[in-house]
Amino acid sequence: MTVKKWTLTALSTLVLTACGGGGDDSSDPAGNGGSSGGNLSQITLNTVSTNWCGIEKPKAGVDVFVHNNAGDIIAQYVTDSNGALTADWPGNARHLTISGESRYSFKEQTTLIVNSEVEVEAGELGAFYFRDDNDLVGCNCKQVEFPVQALIADAPDSQLYLGSYRYDLTPFASSPSREWCEGTGPMDVQLIAADGQSSLAGSIDLADKTEYTLSLDDFTHQGVAVDYVNPYDARILYALSFDGWRNYSQDDLVFVYPTLTNKSYVWPARYGQEYIGNVIADSYSSARHLVTAEGTTSPIMLWQPANEFSDAVYRLFNEISTGKGPYQYDFSGVGEVALTHMTLLGETDSGDADWTIWGGAAGSMPDLKLPADLDAKFDSLYSARLQIGIRGYGAEKSLAQWRKLLLERRAMADNEISVLDYETNYMSLEFEL
Predict the structure, then answer these.
(1) Backbone angles phi, psi at 317, to 5 degrees
(2) What pLDDT shows up at residue 415?
(3) pLDDT 10s digits, 388-418
(4) What confidence tens digit (pLDDT) does each residue in 271-300 have?
């Protein structure tokens, strides 16, 4: 299934009329791995699988397809036993597609993951990630019970967080039990006061333990309330760190712990629906901003899906309805947009399948082609959905510059802060096909 075919499916839902034939003919034909001549540049990339507890290891045998400007496949490679690939980048190469499988704990069958990047430049492309929740190597997971009666006596009616799971410490609360994996390191714990105005946190080592009795001595880090009020129409407000812990509330305070980590965030989100053409699309908008040690953050403005974003999506669909790729799009009027994605996802007879195409804030969307076996999977999706999303980092740069910054951030140590970490906005519209 080409990009044109699955977006035209959406167009039929929106009751738009195609304005021409177009077909799948290429304006830039190439042979098998064809080049425009001269010395070839090269690309270098890695494919990585993350297991149940977050341990990474190389993922071998991932297919890599190189496309020309028209979207035709002109070269095909496979990552080696170390998940690595260094390969020629033909002179007429413009776009890249990575294809492999992931396995998620909440799905019985595998999920085909296809990621395409448009307007790719030769050089180091970094890592592409997959998941395998069935892989428990190095995790050493076990169930740990947490008797809380003593904690209830010392802090009645407070809220306890074990990792990201919340429990109310009421007089008759039972002792919670959580899975803990040695591979993830110590467990983060939080205690939110009964009045919601203060909090404490700690980090406990559960090695060689199947039971751990919590006490106030385990909570040694003072929480700092985030100076941000959740919008009335937003859903849960999160305070979180990618080191592991998070807390959340609709109307009450949320807290960060500067003495535990320097990478704390506040994350509001809004869900809704918008009319696009003659159908209703599900909308989502969120922001993630870095929080200082004092609990402050830069001003947060959730992007609004109405008007400019909705209009830009409609214009893209009208562009695709011509059947003559590449298709022009422009989301730069929404705000400081860095990246755009278009995702087709749904179910197949052998599992699920997701195909995401990433580009810049504005540009051309090629009619990318896939090999026949992948094409057949996306051509036979059921319960299919199409999602259009945009992401921004609070500044305006070229697509190549954003990709360079993303590559640099992946190479940073955990305690380092990238310019991409200060603020992120995201918004999407999703359609049932």
Answers:
(1) -65, -40
(2) 75
(3) 999 999 999 999 999 999 999 988 987 789 9
(4) 999 988 788 899 999 999 999 999 999 999
- Asked if 270 contacts 248 with a C-beta cutoff of 8 angstroms, the reply is no
| DSSP line for 122-159 | SEEEEEEEEEETT--TTT-EEEEE---HHHHHHSTT-E
Q: pLDDT digits over 35-62, tens only?
A: 444 567 999 999 999 999 999 999 999 9
Q: How many CB atoms lie within 10 A of CB 210?
A: 11
Q: Residue 276 has what pLDDT?
A: 84
Rounded Cα distance, 229 and 216, in Å? 29
CA distances from 302 to 97, 143, 179, 233, 331 (A): 31, 39, 35, 11, 16
* Separation CA 122–CA 85 (nearest Å): 13
The answer to whether the beta carbons of residues 104 and 111 sit under 8 Å apart is yes
Question: Do 94 and 118 contact (CB within 8 A), yes or no?
Answer: yes
Tokens for 138, please give them. Answer: 């190095």
Tokens linked to 327: 């298709």
Q: Which pLDDT score, from 0 to 100, does residue 103 have? A: 95
Locate all alpha helices (DSSP H) within 260-387, ordered by sequence: 308-320, 372-379
Torsion 60-61-62-63 (CA) sign? positive
Are 374 and 113 spatial neighbours (Cβ–Cβ below 8 Å)?
no
CA distance 79 to 295: 44
Residues 6+ apart with CB under 8 A from 403: none
Name the maximum alpha-carbon separation found in the chain: 77
The CA–CA distances, whole Å, from 123 to 65, 78, 126, 200 equal 16, 17, 9, 46
